[in-house]
C-alpha cells in the first residue's frame, strides 16, 4: 500500500502533504494534552510492533500479497491521535528502507495513518456502542473495522489517483481493482487486529484505550498497597 | 512503571523483534495490492527511483550481507529497534511538554 514517488503528481502529493501536516499537528496537540505516562512505552511498542508486522506480507489472490496497515490496531490500543502518530513513525522509518516515496510521504500518512486511525476509530466507537459491553465486542469491533479500513484506504488512494494519478487507466478501473484486492487484504488486517487486541485485553485490559469503560468496574476494587 | 507493565513492554518488544528477525524473511515476496494494481493497470512504470535507494538498508536488506534471509531479518531488527526508539523519544517528549505546561496535581488531591 506504500505509494512510491511518481504514481501521483506533485500537486496532489503536496496537497496530501498539507493534510498530513494538519492532521499530525492536531494529533500532536491532542496527544500532548491527553497521553498518560503509562501509555508512553506502550505507544513506542505499538509503533515497533506495527513495523514488524508490516514486514509480514501474506499471500492473497494470484501472485499478490498484502500486509497489515495497523491504523485501527494502534487506535484501539493507544487512542486515535497517538495511533496516527505511531503509524506515521513507522512510515518515516520505512523511508530509510526505501519503502514508500519521500514525496509520497504525505499521501501515505493520509492513507495509512490518518484515514485508518482517525476514521477507523470513529467507526469503532459507533460499532462498540451497538454491541454488548464485553471483551468479545471490543475484539469483534476492532477486527471488523480494521478489515473495512483497508478498502477505505484503497478508496482514498483512488481519489488521489483521480486527482493526480500518473497513469492512463481509468479511475473506475483502478478503483474497482484497488477496492477488490484490498477487501481481501482487509480480512488479514481484521484477523491480525482482532487477535492482537484480544491478546492485550487478556493480559492488560487497562492498556487498551478502546476498552475504556469496559474495565471501569475494576476501579471500584480496593487496590493492594504496592510500592512504586 | 509498575513491574508487570515493564514485563509486558519487554515481552511485546521481544515478540516484535522475533517476528521481524525470524518470520519476515519467510513472508510473501509477491507485489502487494497497490503494486499488483499498478502492474495490471500499467501505471507501475510511472514510479520513480527512491531518493534513499542507496541507503545501506534499502529494500529491507543490509548492504554487505549476501544471504537474503539473514539480510532481511537483520534489517527488520534494526527497523523495530529504530521505530521503538523514535516512538519512545517522540511520545516521551510530547508527554513532557504537557508536564511542563500543566504540572500535575500531587497524587491524592483533587
Can you characterise this structure?
The complex is a heterodimer of chains A (228) and B (110). By secondary structure, chain A is mainly alpha-helical. Chain A has a single domain (10-207), classed as Arp2/3 complex 21 kDa subunit ARPC3. In chain A, 68% of the residues lie in helices and 3% in strands. Chain A has 7 helices and 2 strands. In chain A, a hairpin with a 3-residue loop joins strand 1 (58-60) and strand 2 (64-66). The radius of gyration of chain A is 18 Å and the shape is globular. Chain A starts with 9 loop residues before the first helix and ends in a 25-residue tail after the last helix. The mean pLDDT of chain A is 94. Chain B is mainly alpha-helical. Chain B has one domain (3-101). Helix content of chain B is 58%, strand content 0%. Chain B is built from 3 helices and no strands. Chain B has helices at 3-23, 33-41, 68-101. In chain B, helix 1 (3-23) runs antiparallel to helix 3.
Mean pLDDT of chain A: 94
Per DSSP, the total helix count of chain A is 7
Shape of chain A: globular
CATH hierarchy class name of chain A: Mainly Alpha
**Radius of gyration of chain A, CA atoms, in whole angstroms:** 18 Å
State the total count of DSSP E strands of chain B: 0
Structural class of chain A: mainly alpha
Low-confidence spans of chain B: pLDDT under 50, at least 5 residues?
none
**Major beta-sheet overview of chain A:** 2 strands, antiparallel
Distance between the termini of chain B: 22 Å
* Share of residues in helices of chain A: 55-70%
Q: Ranges of chain A with pLDDT <50 over ≥5 residues?
A: none
Instruction: For the record, give the distance between the C-alpha atoms at the N and C termini of chain A, rounded to a whole number.
Output: 44 Å
Strand content of chain A: under 5%
Q: Order of SSEs of chain A, N→C?
A: HHEEHHHHH
Shape of chain B: extended
Structural class of chain B: mainly alpha
Q: Give the biggest sheet of chain B.
A: none
The mean pLDDT of chain B is 89
